[in-house]
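Example 3.2
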Amino acid sequence: MRLWWHDPFRMFQTNLREIDAGLDVEKVLDYLEEFGANTWLLSVGGILSNYPTDLDFQTRNPHLAERPSGDLVGDAVKAAARRGIRVMGRMDFSKIDHRRAEAHPDWCFVGPDGARQVYNGLTSVCPSGDYYQAKLFEVLDEVLDRYPLDGFFCNWMSFNEVDYSRVYHGVCHCVSCQERYDGPLPDGRNSPGYEDWQLFSKAVLADLTQRIRDHLAARRPEAPLVLGDQADIVFHEANNAVGRPLWHHRTSEAVSAAKTYRPTVPVLTNSVGFVDMPYRMASEDPQHFAQYLLQAIARGANPSTYIMGTPSDNPYACLQVAGELTRFHRDHQDVYRDLVPAAETLLVRPKEGSTPEFRGLYLSLLQRHVPFDVLPAERLHDVDLGRYRVVGLPDLGPVDLGSYIGGIVATGATEVARLPVRRLAGYTTEEDTRSLHLEGGVPVFGAFHVVEPPTGAEVGLLALSRAPYGPPEKCHGHVQLEHPGVVRRENTVLFPWTIGRSYREVGLGVHRDLLVDEVIRAGGTSMETDLPEQIEIVLGRSAAGTVVHLLNRSGDTDQRFAPPVPVGPARLRLPDGVREVEALRSGEHLPVTDGWVQLPEIGLFEVLVCV
């Protein structure tokens, strides 16, 4: 049986305040229908119950008294069912009120200093304790007994190291954690044993996630769990944050990482309509918000828009473009059904996250029109690498690619068995590499590793000895050394320095081009086109055929997205065998001549369906 969430869907989340319990459900549903959404994520239970709970450890929202029925969830589910709109329940078990915290101290987070974590009168709880481990399931059962909800999302299911104000509280030392953890608990990020505790905490959450999935499957198999990358639907929140440097490709990267790992598992990109939690009344810029949804659908995720309160209370300026893109997804549902990655180049993301080296490779491939997928390093052994012609490995250390025989382009400290270099020395600080050049005047930024290549390897980009860089009268003496800046053997290449970081942080085209030329030489494919580098090309495959998203990134600028400059017309060479092309945004049928199509002008984006 094909479950409903394996077809494309579009969500709208009303993250309700307690004062919103009296909302007009018909008015909200009118808005959702016009918006293009067919799924409503509604605040149901946990911190506050928007239904008349009978559980003594839950709190009924006092504003339910404003409703004749006294039951917001019941009213919403009935009204939505009449319109064919699904309702999913947002649950938040991360906090309890003071009375329950006093009655059940063993449920609560306890810091290394013995203090509880209290925020706006609510006390944080710990996933190791019985509130999560047992009472959560009683809440789910009560809700399922009363309402045919179409799924559940659990918010903030974590060990609460950081609160809403981004204050770090450390590792939980509650009695349940002490009993579960093997050994003394670390205090925080800089404590010995913290990495082991991270493995423990991830295991606790993974086990809890699986138990929730199993419970829902037994009670209501048509109600999926939306959570991390092991849930029925993978959740990604696309958001902005004051004080966080903008990575313009954050949503695309996250969705690609999920879809490359498990292509057939749905991903939900819940896009935040406001700037940041402390500025929840301020609308996100429409150009910025548009990128959340565009990057999501291009990589195969389902779009979702998330607001505080109700649409009438918070009419964010970004909602107009959000509705336009949501309706585009609705109107082309057949194109987005079963959309999976189709690139032939894979970029592996380091375990510690999106690093400058990774981002430099990301930008290099994107700008040279090499379509690629992203895969987290910890998932390397969970996918079939054989579907890729080239794998990019950005400064990862030792990497085991098993029996993979395709091309490899590695950088920095990456080590692969197929190219066993001997590492003689490493220059890893800014002072170590200052004024370091490779032949041809290529500068090195970040780290450079002196390596001895294996027998039969080809070398190039030899390093030059460093010389004074001031005063000018003394700036001479760069002598060519035997230290290679690139080592090749067959289809395996190593740049033993941080060429990606160099491009990310300084922006010299020579770094990008050296890197991508080696990717292509190792078997990667750059799409032939006269489109400028500001057009990102994303390849996918769905029930409709090959799907090519052309995203106009000319608006990417410092800490924001400006309106993109229209690009084109231009030409693009399509994959072999394409006979017909439909441009969905412009509504044009594009003739194919010797494998080439003439593209219409591209504004924000274009989507080509090729058969």
